[in-house]
Write a structure and sequence with these properties.
By secondary structure, the chain is of the alpha+beta class. It contains 3 helices and 5 strands, in the order βββαββαα. It has helices spanning 48-69, 109-129, 131-138; strands at 16-22, 25-30, 35-39, 76-88, 91-104. A hairpin with a 4-residue loop joins strand 2 (25-30) and strand 3. The protein is elongated and about 65 Å long. Pfam families: OsmC (PF02566).
């Protein structure tokens, strides 16, 4: 994996490698050695669309949890990401994307602070912090390329 663009600053590059491991099955590997299996929907592995939804929920969840947990640790913390896959004149894509937080904090002053702050944390995450949803919202173009012949 190489960075095709000049780096605008330190530690900005992100990337994964995807390798076919079987018919309709792949593994994504990050630079730290983490592996996520990806499938076509014929097995339990996450599909690419499900991974996009997981990325939306994960990015927002990590951020909101970090911000609210400074006030109080949650008793429960669940995030749902959903949308509808459609095919129209624009091709296949998701519409109606929604990320929903279901968070419970303990009773008491610290829990009250976290409850009051939760809507602000969600809004800040949506408006400026979550890289995944900001990228989707802003609509960054994706370039596709074919690696040069290795023979």
């Amino acid at each position: 994996m190489t960075d095709p663009l000049p780096s605008p600053g330190p530690d900005t590059w992100r990337g994964i490698d995807l390798t076919r491991i079987g018919e309709g099955r792949y593994k994504a590997t990050n630079q730290r050695g983490g592996i996520v299996p990806i499938g076509s929907g014929q097995d339990p592995d996450f599909t690419p669309v499900e991974l996009l939804l997981a990325a939306l929920a994960g990015c927002a969840g990590v951020t909101v949890d970090e911000l609210t947990s400074r006030r109080s640790q949650p008793l429960s913390f669940d995030v749902t990401a959903e949308g509808h896959k459609v095919r129209d004149d624009g091709g296949s894509h998701l519409v109606g994307l929604k990320v929903t937080f279901d968070v419970t904090f303990p009773e008491g002053a610290d829990g009250d602070k976290a409850r009051v702050f939760l809507p602000r944390a969600v809004q800040q995450t949506h408006d400026r912090i979550c890289t995944v949803s900001r990228t989707v919202t802003l609509g960054e173009p994706v370039d596709y390329a074919i690696a040069e012949d290795r023979a």
